């Protein structure tokens, strides 16, 4: 079908317009001031599927609209017609029965006339739909990954609790030199495995926006002294010099998260030691005042190791990336440490940068914008109270379903003394709590029959003599903000698996002191 024009136009003008209109990719329809079609090109006829032989010249818009809005009811077509007549400028999108999608842009022309240009956007819309489908699939995969890691956290930490717990107890027993070295190797390997697990879990927490940082008083000099004591033997065993320098103007105390600061510096020192065969590892700590109450702490970790090129530095902080693929084979590692360290620094309103030269060395710089904190003298009466609480024989109800973990926990609880009763799930714990008074309840979270959260809520809602007994959560699931969930359910404290015996003893002593203080309170009687 050829392009259609008003017969009254001159042949020359008509031929000229036909040549122009037939050589542009858009479909063009022009209406006069009366709203009737005066021109339409071949692209528009093809786009709209107008049958051969159909004469649309002089057709009013209200009738022509059936081609623009096929499948619409007469009322809908009339509404859209009125919309176009009122505005005479804008854009409409419509889809034909062929599933092709068109964009119709309309605007004024030749006084009160109007022109509509049609553009086939089917391919763009298809790409957008595919991109949206891919985005939804990626979000679903990311959610599934987080849920998988949450479950794996529990499944891995449960046996690791037994492995590290029993190995720790074995290390304290009467062993010969060879046995002692074997147990030490077992503990070291377990610590490495826990470090890898913690890196993966931290990454998932960060991606889910669930990792929180503390803002408490931190003695930065104490942090550095502890790091120096821990790392000096490892670094000097490689024949390297180890220096720690702290400027005099560094504040005695700052506000921050000591655990996360140590975690970052552990990663940086680990890399510096791993990639340096000769020379030195140096830590420089300095401060730059930002305001009367704010200071920027600058911690540089410098080594004389293998160094990196600019291209390698550009990939260094990417998740699961190593500066060089061969590094994984030669030195090991997940490629998560630096990525997590930078994200932790960002959470603490800081950053990590790197400067490096191949075969010369590398300097990582941790910058933290912190508030200075007043220096406080630490007091220790609480530890005395805790010691007394443990020495008096605390009554404990331990709720744990895993037989291996029961044996580990029993070994940990022997030094506490007192009486320990056992329950295999939450429902059994509620029955025991109804007939005997306890000072502390140790509650696992994931258990058959009744889980720990449900049991805690039921105990708190009841009227038994243990309705207000402090409950300490013991959980291998360190992924999903469990501490807040446990406290919200009515628990007093939270320790994660693998269980640190020192953390366990501190939590029990603190809870026992609270419990006994409550028992001494005078009973209130209603008149």
Distance between the termini: 101 Å
Under the CATH scheme, which class of the largest domain?
Alpha Beta
Give the overall pLDDT as a whole number.
Answer: 80
- The proportion of strand residues reads 15-25%
Give the tally of structural domains: 4
The SS-based structural class is alpha/beta
| Shape type | elongated
Number of helices: 17
- SS elements, strand count: 18
Low-confidence runs of at least 5 consecutive residues: 322-334, 377-389, 523-527
The CATH architecture of the largest domain? 2-Layer Sandwich
Q: What's the CATH topology label of the largest domain?
A: Heat Shock Protein 90
Question: Can you offer a commentary on this structure?
Answer:
The chain has a 6-stranded antiparallel sheet, with helices on both faces. Helix 15 links the parallel strand 16 and strand 17. The model is unreliable at 322-334, 377-389 and 523-527 (pLDDT under 50). The protein is built from 17 helices and 18 strands. The protein is α/β, with parallel strands linked by helices and 527 residues long. It has 4 domains: 4-120, Beta-Lactamase (2-Layer Sandwich), CATH 3.30.450; 140-207, Helix Hairpins, CATH 1.10.287; 216-371, 2-Layer Sandwich (Heat Shock Protein 90), CATH 3.30.565.10; 383-520, Response regulator (Rossmann fold, 3-Layer(aba) Sandwich), CATH 3.40.50. Helices cover 47% and strands 21% of the residues. The radius of gyration is 36 Å and the shape is elongated. The chain has helices at 11-21, 42-48, 61-68, 74-87, 122-171, 177-207, 220-237, 258-274, 310-314, 325-331, 337-347, 381-391, 403-413, 426-433, 452-461, 482-488, 501-520, and strands at residues 4-5, 27-31, 37-40, 90-95, 101-109, 113-120, 216-218, 241-246, 254-256, 280-289, 294-303, 350-357, 361-371, 395-399, 419-423, 440-444, 471-475, 493-496.
